[in-house]
Amino acid sequence: MIRAGLALACFAALGCVAATALPRLVSPIKGLKASDVRDTYNEIHNGHPHEALDIMVSRGTPVHAVVSGTVRKLFLSKAGGNTIYEFDDAQEYCFYYAHLDRYAPDLKEGTHVRAGDVIAFAGSTGNADATAPHLHFAVNKLGPGQEWWKGEPLDPFSKLVEALPQ
Length: 166
Fold this sequence. Notes:
Layout: E1 8-11, E2 15-18, E3 44-45, E4 48-49, E5 53-56, E6 62-64, E7 69-77, E8 81-88, E9 93-103, E10 112-113, E11 118-122, E12 134-141, E13 152-154, H1 157-162
Antiparallel strand pairs: 1-2, 3-4, 5-12, 6-11, 7-8, 7-10, 8-9, 9-11, 9-12, 12-13
């Protein structure tokens, strides 16, 4: 992968997708500062590229939608635990929130959310260390079929940091 000022996710077979094309994000965690976020996107976790940011917070911390969009999938997975797949209103990007302790009351597939709405609460479900609750946050550029599991991963670090106070 190549990183040079702009956040790029580069793959030999797929080419590069600029994360700078992402819509404006709001913070997924109220009170989060740029200095609180570490770029874990290029780390290797469990033998494969992480392709996400881990934002360390206390269990039960409210998680906010980073963009306005629609909750397309609520899913319990072995790796991610309680997860949310949110598509932006333009249906170009999928925002993935994982290791959630629980969902916000009344959240269900098809719910339209506004940027800043509480959608869940951080935790350590799935393969996360039970003693290290956090929000696992990832972004994928959707393809023509809008299959969230086949999207092109993007490093959201620079776009997220832009949205946060220093």
